[in-house]
Amino acid sequence: MDNLSENINETIKYINELEDFFDGKLGEVQKKAYADNIPAIPKETAKFLSVILSIKRPKNVLEIGTATGFSASLISRYLAEDGRITTIDRYEIMLNSAKKTFGFMGIEDKVTVLEGDAAEILPTLTGKYDFIFLDAAKGQYIYFLPYIEKLLDVGGILIADDIFQGGNISQSRYEIPRRQRTIHSRMRAFLWEICHSDVFETALIPIGDGIAFCHKVKEAKEE
Ligand SMILES: C[S@@+](CC[C@H](N)C(=O)[O-])C[C@H]1O[C@@H](n2cnc3c(N)ncnc32)[C@H](O)[C@@H]1O
């Protein structure tokens, strides 16, 4: 084992100590999410997103998986002028909390909250998006992908979070508990698709619990 593999946890700890929380209200939302143990993107993923967003400056963002609104609040900081976010969650308690977050951040006019299962909402969406952040039930990514592919503009970016499933993704299905095998094989199917797609240039990046970073380079061929 090389030095980096041996020291990876220490290295991540070092990076997290080196990087500041966000400033202002966004930092307050971030610290609260971590303190309350709410599912939210970890610090290093948030930092990575902020860099991509500050380059991309998206105009029309779709988020799948709002939780209490930390990542949507982060995205709102980097929107283009007149930019907007549509965010989907199926869990009412989370969305009530997210609406409070958006009020606190003063971004209610930029955010459209859609309540319900993304599996039902995605087929009804007709707009085009230049940035999609996928951070919902990991076993559903493969089913969301055809809709995401259509909704994303050429030149747009898809980021999918938590693709390594706590490190299980590299293990064979027989090495992981039986109850996790379905989600494991669905995530592997999702990763295979995005890595072998003509539509996306994709990199899988070991940051947080792993992210897929996909650039849509062309439209899918009509069947
Ligand atoms: C990891 S949390 C999102 C964290 C958030 N993006 C952040 O960083 O602040 C995942 C959220 O996705 C929602 N979710 C999971 N599957 C969903 C689905 N099929 N449709 C809509 N929401 C879903 C859950 O209710 C949960 O609030």
Folded structure, characterized:
The protein has 223 residues and is an alpha/beta fold. The protein has one domain: Vaccinia Virus protein VP39 (Rossmann fold). It contains 8 helices and 7 strands. It has helices at residues 3-18, 24-35, 43-56, 70-77, 92-105, 118-121, 141-151, 181-195; strands spanning 60-64, 84-89, 111-115, 129-134, 152-161, 200-205, 211-216. It has a 7-stranded mixed beta sheet with strand order 3-2-1-4-5-7-6, with helices on both faces. Helix 7 (141-151) packs parallel to helix 8 (181-195). The chain is globular and about 50 Å long. The N and C termini lie far apart (47 Å). The mean pLDDT is 94. The structure holds S-adenosylmethionine (SAM). S-adenosylmethionine is lined by residues 39-41, 65, 67, 70-71, 88-91, 94, 117-119, 135-137, 140.
The level 1 CATH classification is: Alpha Beta
What general form does the structure show? globular
**What is the fold-level CATH name, i.e. the topology?**
Rossmann fold
Give me the CATH superfamily: Vaccinia Virus protein VP39
Say how many strands there are: 7
Distance between the termini: 47 Å
Structural class, from secondary structure content? alpha/beta
Helix content: 40-55%
- Gyration radius, rounded: 17 Å
Output the strand order for the largest sheet: 3-2-1-4-5-7-6
CATH architecture, by name, is 3-Layer(aba) Sandwich
- The structural domain count equals 1
Low-confidence stretches: none
Proportion of β residues?
Answer: 15-25%
Following the backbone from N to C, one meets helices and strands in this order, namely HHHEHEHEHEHEHEE
The kinds of small molecule bound in this structure are:
S-adenosylmethionine
Q: Compute the number of helices.
A: 8
| Largest β-sheet summary | 7 strands, mixed
- Please state the average pLDDT score: 94
